[in-house]
Amino acid sequence: xxxxxxxxxxxxxxxxxxxxxxxxxxxxxxxxxxxxxxxxxxxxxxxxxxxxxxxxxxxxxxxxxxxxxxxxxxxxxxxxxxxxxxxxxxxxxxxxxxxxxxxxxxxxxxxxxxxxxxxxxxxxxxxxxxxxxxxxxxxxxxxxxxxxxxxxxxxxxxxxxxxxxxxxxxxxxxxxxxxxxxxxxxxxxxxxxxxxxxxxxxxxxxxxxxxxxxxxxxxxxxxxxxxxxxxxxxxxxxxxxxxxxxxxxxxxxxxxxxxxxxxxxxxxxxxxxxxxxxxxxxxxxxxxxxxxxxxxxxxxxxxxxxxxxxxxxxxxxxxxxxxxxxxxxxxxxxxxxxxxxxxxxxxxxxxxxxxxxxxxxxxxxxxxxxxxxxxxxxxxxxxxxxxxxxxxxxxxxxxxxxxxxxxxxxxxxxxx
Length: 416
Description:
Ubiquitin-like_dom; 5-stranded mixed sheet; alpha+beta; ARM-type_fold; elongated; 4 domains; 55% helix; Leucine-rich Repeat Variant; 416 residues; PAT14 protein; 7% strand; Ubiquitin-like (UB roll)
């Protein structure tokens, strides 16, 4: 049986979607299909085709023309019932109504924006967050009234509300907007570490690289009492600070002595993005003062060709250590992935010495996707004192089957 394609359009000319129905289907079926697609109550909308209201009792083939590839239907949505449900005693109904309005309202609709703004006073935090999300959907870009409302919620909302408001500001105001940046920077003065973490995590997304206020705030946060804030501050500086900024380099060098291991790591990575090749102090500290940190920064600020670095990386390859793992290794500790110096070297450079200058994935006789892989001795990978989780039934069952197979082979070989 042939199917008819129905294209659904809003009054403002925005395509809402498409549905397929049988020729014998009625307009009532189309209305319910539209309600399911748009997640709207059937009573909230009417359907127009060719400038006339479609009768629920007529069949779809009545509106079909052989010259048209699809039936174009305009969906006229009445917001009054949605507004009424936005004040329902049940919080879940209010959230559903707000989500529906976000899909149904035309961008920039003043009536819809005013109705959603009233929901920002709701006592339920979940409803307020849905209202903020809906507001960012229906408000046009640059709407100052909406931007100010979102900024207010960044300042006074709970942590989840703050995050939702920041995300909405990114959509309505855009990265680099003065009010957005100021709202995020103000969070850094909060007594709550969670708010400061949110601010520092959001800073690289809401501001432009090289912004003096943001860079200064991140430098100050490098000395925050909370270790997570310091880590995020180092990451932010790696993305925002201009290369060669002496103040930032000095602050990052100071964090290389931080008590927190992850802070030291992120400071080293950020230093590789900010320090220049001519910065003798940064280069000297990384290559001589703390050899375990060399691998993070060497490829970033360009110290290629240095024999010290060459020897360091060759040592890591032969011992099957990554630079990240090398940060955490104890003195003299052996990698649990170590399968012998020769095989360690082959896993990085290949088996054939005359092809070491070629990328590893080009050394195969045929393309195999993500590179050449050799067999790994998994018995050396797992520590002897490391126990597999008891709930991994698949692993346990596979082990039992393997043992049974080995026992069967032994019995056959002995003739039992």
